[in-house]
């Protein structure tokens, strides 16, 4: 099997984990508004980049980089740790909740269903620039195709 690049996205936004479903007074379950809005933005960004490309039906490799803005007022010790590559964003959002939100947002736009994702590479790191979510989608294809 080889990998065929389908899409690379840079989504300029703060990463947010998928919000827990809520229940209304009528007992109907719903996704929180902020989660819906962030997923809608990811959907629109992906749809724009997909253009006329067909939705992927085969197995997917999904690579995600979550870049979190470094706080402005680092202590001297924090600055040294950051410059040495020894400082990591261990705060929320949890990486698995971010993944779920991204996978749900891309359903029906890039792939038919997120059950097609068979491999995931994901990391969180700091950036001195704006917050960013980098997404790379590859389809696993036969060596012939």
Identify the notable features of this structure and list them briefly.
60s Ribosomal Protein L30, Chain: A, alpha+beta, two-stranded antiparallel sheet, 145 residues
Describe the structure.
The chain is an alpha+beta fold and 145 residues long. It has one domain: 2-Layer Sandwich (60s Ribosomal Protein L30, Chain: A). It has helices spanning 33-50, 76-83, 95-106; strands at residues 2-11, 22-23, 29-30, 60-69, 117-127, 132-141. Helix 1 crosses helix 3. 20% of the residues are buried.
- Helix coverage percent of residues? 25-40%
- Supply the number of structural domains: 1
Instruction: Tell me the radius of gyration.
Output: 17 Å
| pLDDT averaged residue by residue | 88
List the helices and strands and how they pair.
Elements: E1 2-11, E2 22-23, E3 29-30, H1 33-50, E4 60-69, H2 76-83, H3 95-106, E5 117-127, E6 132-141
Provide a quick synopsis of the model.
The protein is of the alpha+beta class. It has 3 helices and 6 strands; from the N terminus they run E-E-E-H-E-H-H-E-E.
